[in-house]
Design brief:
The protein is an alpha+beta fold and 234 residues long. β2 and β3 form a beta hairpin. It is built from seven helices and nine strands; from the N terminus they run ββββαααβααββαββα. α4 runs parallel beside α6 and α5 runs antiparallel to α6. A three-stranded antiparallel beta sheet has the order 2-3-5. A two-stranded antiparallel ribbon has the order 1-4. A two-stranded antiparallel ribbon has the order 6-7. The chain binds zinc ion. The site of zinc ion (ZN) has 8 residues, from loops.
Length: 234
């Protein structure tokens, strides 16, 4: 089931982002200095990415990001900025330079991760049956609040249309909405030394526990290894 978030585009400098103090304009017309994500090299080229198509459980990965500048710089270099989009995509063959991206305050990331985490934790306790229907309604309101006033593109193709978010931030909230609505089922791989997030099938009884065949085989081998040791010990 596609909701549109998998079509969200971000633009990432080849050398990634780093954190630097920058002077920013405030809403009241003044200015303030803040830690911001900026391209490591301003003359870098930008590469287009489709982060939610590449990582369908991205909202879960962001939820687990600690508020450390290193992790935030790492996540942005891998998936793009949260609130910045390139208004007009370049014509094929044209290059966009990294200085086209305005600096993005790290504070936006900290707030966004915290808000997502609160909602994901609430959802997890609802899904495990520990909460009432009122809490479910409260979660729905919170997600709707975060998606209100966010810009979307309407893409019409064939016999369907999708609301494609313009920013990564909106896409992450849309992924969470899709999870709460039961359209996607993120799960964590149960294999030793993996714990990667992956999408289980949409069937209600889907019990897929591993992200890949390699992980499935590794877990199976380890169980066999444990069993044979237990038998020897007897
Ligand atoms: Zn795995």
């Amino acid at each position: 089931m596609h909701t549109g978030s998998e079509l969200l585009e971000t633009w990432i400098p080849d050398g990634g982002f780093m954190i630097e103090r920058r002077k920013l304009k405030t809403a009241d017309g003044g200015s303030a200095v803040a830690d911001c994500l900026v391209p490591k090299w301003s003359d870098d080229e930008l590469t287009r990415d489709l982060p939610c198509a590449r990582q369908p459980c991205l909202h879960r990965i962001f939820t687990e990001c600690p508020p450390s500048p290193e992790r935030i710089a790492f996540l942005s270099s891998r998936y793009g900025l949260l609130t910045v989009s390139i208004p007009r995509p370049p014509a094929p063959g044209h290059v966009v330079k990294a200085d086209a991206l305005p600096p993005e305050p790290v504070e936006i990331w900290c707030k966004e991760i915290q808000a997502l985490r609160a909602c994901v934790e609430l959802w997890d306790s609802i899904a495990s049956g520990q909460q009432s229907a009122t809490e479910r309604e409260r979660l729905g309101h919170k997600i709707a609040e975060h998606l209100a006033r966010t810009p979307f593109h309407l893409r019409i193709s064939g016999q369907c249309f999708r609301y494609c978010p313009v920013t990564l931030s909106a896409a992450l909230w849309q992924r969470l909405a899709a999870e709460v609505a039961g359209l996607i089922h993120p799960a964590r791989c149960a294999a030793p030394n993996c714990s990667r997030w992956f999408l289980r099938g949409t069937a209600v009884r889907s019990d897929k526990r591993f992200c890949s065949n390699a992980c499935k085989n590794r877990a199976f081998r380890q169980t066999k290894h444990h069993d044979s040791h237990a038998t020897t010990a007897m």
